[in-house]
TrEMBL record, chains A, B, C, D:
Name of protein: Threonine aldolase
Domain spans labelled Aromatic amino acid beta-eliminating lyase/threonine aldolase: 4-237
Family of this protein: Belongs to the threonine aldolase family.
Cofactor: pyridoxal 5'-phosphate
SUPFAM superfamilies to which the protein is assigned, alphabetical: PLP-dependent transferases (SSF53383)
A Pfam family that the UniProt record links to this protein: Beta_elim_lyase
Amino acid sequence: MLHFESDYTMSAHPAILQALQASSQEHYAGYGLDTVSQEAQDRIRAATLNPDADIHFVAGGTQANKIVIASLLRAFEGVVATDSAHIATHEAGAIESSSHKVLTTPQVNGKLTSEALQQVLDSWENDDNRDHMVRPGMVYISHPTEFGTLYSRSELATLHSICLKHHIPLFVDGARLGYGLAAKSTDVTLPDLAQYADVFTIGGTKMGALFGEAIVLRHRDMIASFFSQIKLHGALLAKGWLLGLQFNTLFNDNLYWNIGEYADHLAMQIHDTAASKGYSFMVDSPTNQQFFTVDHQTIERLSQYMPVAVWQQRENQFDIRIATSWSTTQDDVDQLLTLL
Amino acid sequence: MLHFESDYTMSAHPAILQALQASSQEHYAGYGLDTVSQEAQDRIRAATLNPDADIHFVAGGTQANKIVIASLLRAFEGVVATDSAHIATHEAGAIESSSHKVLTTPQVNGKLTSEALQQVLDSWENDDNRDHMVRPGMVYISHPTEFGTLYSRSELATLHSICLKHHIPLFVDGARLGYGLAAKSTDVTLPDLAQYADVFTIGGTKMGALFGEAIVLRHRDMIASFFSQIKLHGALLAKGWLLGLQFNTLFNDNLYWNIGEYADHLAMQIHDTAASKGYSFMVDSPTNQQFFTVDHQTIERLSQYMPVAVWQQRENQFDIRIATSWSTTQDDVDQLLTLL
Amino acid sequence: MLHFESDYTMSAHPAILQALQASSQEHYAGYGLDTVSQEAQDRIRAATLNPDADIHFVAGGTQANKIVIASLLRAFEGVVATDSAHIATHEAGAIESSSHKVLTTPQVNGKLTSEALQQVLDSWENDDNRDHMVRPGMVYISHPTEFGTLYSRSELATLHSICLKHHIPLFVDGARLGYGLAAKSTDVTLPDLAQYADVFTIGGTKMGALFGEAIVLRHRDMIASFFSQIKLHGALLAKGWLLGLQFNTLFNDNLYWNIGEYADHLAMQIHDTAASKGYSFMVDSPTNQQFFTVDHQTIERLSQYMPVAVWQQRENQFDIRIATSWSTTQDDVDQLLTLL
Amino acid sequence: MLHFESDYTMSAHPAILQALQASSQEHYAGYGLDTVSQEAQDRIRAATLNPDADIHFVAGGTQANKIVIASLLRAFEGVVATDSAHIATHEAGAIESSSHKVLTTPQVNGKLTSEALQQVLDSWENDDNRDHMVRPGMVYISHPTEFGTLYSRSELATLHSICLKHHIPLFVDGARLGYGLAAKSTDVTLPDLAQYADVFTIGGTKMGALFGEAIVLRHRDMIASFFSQIKLHGALLAKGWLLGLQFNTLFNDNLYWNIGEYADHLAMQIHDTAASKGYSFMVDSPTNQQFFTVDHQTIERLSQYMPVAVWQQRENQFDIRIATSWSTTQDDVDQLLTLL
């Protein structure tokens, strides 16, 4: 059986499992107050070139999004996002369950355009009834997006400057950040991201960890009592060192980048070969997720060899997702390309 | 100064002020448990032809919407509505602040079409990821809509049957219900509404009351401990008899219908004359709210004589709202028509 | 039938009904942005000797408490109150439904002692696990208390200084404030209250209004977008001028004080006569609520002439509440005293 | 350095680390829908003798408590617990942040007595104002309690029957359940617990897992869409098989019981020796947590060799906690006993 249905079907990168095994005789302080977590935070501070960054680890992406958004917004504010944003679609109402509205605007290639953002903000500010409406209080984008696409450095800079002008924070969901940073065509580095985003996450779960997301805040005063806020959301792990240990490993010896680069490389092989065979794509993605358009017969055929993740359907046109990861092998890719 | 900017700029219908004055020497049980409130509930039960209806009074429309929706939905559910619905636009996030998502779909003439509703429900049910998505748990429409338009009896019946098939309640926001029921062109009666809606409100504030909305539930078991739920939302009025008294008055001697008929009649005079003068309309409304399309010069001119409520703008085209009410006089209308 | 069961069984003070009648031909701006509301706010600013006060009106007491507390607290904070506080007992979980804990400590004569407050605050600050605990983020007291008792000027000053030292606001629930300010034995004036409380309410409902509470904030920057926060709680009245009109009347010609003084005077007549007849009291209240201790036979006897509100029971000892108001007559009192 | 400060300072039991290592080449379905999780659920169903049990895994205890309570309660209900309950003290307001009140009553030896429970329920039911009060909607106890103490089989049966009579569920927080089930003096078996509790958790984190709690519901219809509710709380783990794998290991070959028995045995050695040396105890605990009363000098002395967890202080009397676990060795215990 081939596994291209997602990038989190397998355990963890061997380096992580090994680090875990190696730590089996250690005692750690609870709740992430241990030295390994501190070391991981230091490594991330160094990698982002922001010595003031405040870093916290939680187990999952929806959790990270929910806590960050709930902690940053005031009661009368909502979060601006595209209509394809994870927080708008696949988090079962997690943001609303924390009492905040997701103010959606149409995506373009999975992205929030600066025009769309400007329009949402202007529209609120110019409305005589704005005090009866939800105030746009922060902006959420994902990088890579839910479609695998990437913002350019200049696009991020523009979104950032719009947010700055309106005194609202820019939050970047980096659930698959490593695949974005390692993309051949990107001009966005981690320090760039850390400069343009007021808060962002560095995803572990989909990048070779067992679980875990790092939340990176621009500075320590951004969110009051963030530790307590994590706790009241039920997200404070007793053995928080588990998160520190995994990020310590991912941010050692370029592992996080290497995983991204490896998976992106395989994904582009698939993309290029498929394109040359005449397949078309839902969007042009430079990262580990590729969205093909296929017919029903192709799905039937592929399903004999692998689980097939259908993204959307328009009559007999199906967009399916192919995702590579650290655990995909060249042999897997070759088999898939033969099947296509 | 003329006043067509809304239907709630003046005190209350004389009959209501008189009833209030008349009751000044009475003692009442607190929290709506008084006999006047019971009498008002009985009158509404009679008028809706539903002896099982459970009726509660609260002070305002956003409050009624918030409490009904929060009480009917489970944590993982949202409410389906058009993108122009009051709950989606002008309630400052009241629904989300109660932890629920408003699942919007584009309006057509201010209305939710059965096709759109069907599509929202099917789309959720057919999605493999539906357990990661907000479940559509009820349907909200307003009648008249925010654009003054009305559902036909057959449209209501279809929405009702779709809801029934999916085991979710249909909630009708009747903030301006009287103007809808009294419209010349409508085929919807109050008993019809009571049959098709599982819950609906009968608006008082915009129909001549000082304040107050009646919440009408199909039967007593629909919402557990609704009294306590009203209380925990801060909406239980100590002198609840004030609400009962007003609805008792409105539902006596056809006052509620008469107010609607009177205001609709004046509104149609305005519509017909304006149309004959070449004005165009945002939508074709048969009720007390008329939305004209005018240019900037017209707004400037009118503003010398009356406050002008601009609804939306497209370059030099402005949609303005003209609303009539119980307090509008024929003389006001004549003056307005001269101005147009 | 006599009515001493509460101070809100009757309509409104004649001056309020008259003001309402007089305004029947006026047009008002919506949502409390009218000139009458502004006038009422000015009068309250003058009466409190605080020209910077930010004043908002809402319909009810639970609503006022819920909105103030939800707007002032951050997610990880709770409100300190006695275990007999209205917010801790009789608001159906309104505070918790806004996601905040009420941190209770035992009452002494219905009051929060400075020792108890100090203990709650110190206990949190000195606890190694405080980041796992709800932070005391504000203090709630009622004046008069739920038992009719009053804080002295010096007690308020001490609570205020403790709050100041801990950088948390002091909130005074003044649902029956007028009965407190007019008490013979009190040394607390309205300007005193305005000085010691960062936020307080001036109750209308129990002081002769049809409904309404004024929320008085020390200055305009205390709560961001308070208008929108009122709206999202469903508490923004379309005809907000109704609230302004009533407070305008209550704060004209000393009416608010006169009502308080009148009712307190009658209450003390009852107290003194009852005491002289050997009745004992649950607490020593100088305001319009008197809590007698009686046996079952007395309740049976009184019940033939008036509704009897039982507060608490210990075997055959019942504490019943007798409340006077603007609508109580000397004749009512004489009849009651004959019955006792 | 000795480590008795808590039972979760070390990694995981070797069997769990080994299972993790062994699974490194497997592909798993996401979100706990994998076969290993199913196997773990089957093992727990078998061990509880309840084939209808519905079992879900989440990462932490506060998370489990929050989700269970929020999912079971209606908006107007609260959860009854002792004032020492974890949900009432050390969860940073997690329950209130889900909009529910914790209705506390004084603990006796850390336990909720049937008399106290009866009193809370009767008091609400007999109160004329109960519709203005939070309804007791479920009961929370922990077993072992926060003080290490245990309910007897008959005590559980009584609490269960009271709950049954009032139609409210009994929820048992089993964060340290294994230490309770393995206690020498207990007469409570896992099937007993499963019979008396409508919902309970089986703690992994403090019983040798890296993290994880199993939530055991009496039957599948207890909580609607529990999967979505876990998701909206941000608690759905992408690699949910990690939880299944750990519980599969703990419930294989009696590992869960063996860990409990081993740690309890060491704890009782400490207890008995300390008692014979004249130490006194805060409560009489038969499980892995022992609460000693010591003076400041003793704390100073012990602190040179181990972190000391102080539970509470009364002048120069300190209650400190000594906790054993799967990772405590006989040698550790011997060293500690020498120190005492």
